[in-house]
Design goal:
Length: about 80
Amino acid sequence: MAGAIRQRDDDDNDAAFAEGAITLWSNLLALIGTYLLEAGTPRQEVLDMLTMLHETNEETVRSPRARAIAGRHLMSVYRALGDA
């Protein structure tokens, strides 16, 4: 029983770490995207980069949960930069 509880705690810690990393990653993407727009990169080009990144994540991120979370964060960044 203690082993099952410990495994669950480890899984929760891993999930929390992954979600934190994804949040930091999306914030960094927002900063990079904003910088690119301010530096004169066409908006559509920046949005195309985000789309390509999303497609790459869909193919390479193994965890369905992490893939879904990353997708939601990336869509938020896409919308924010698309409306900026």
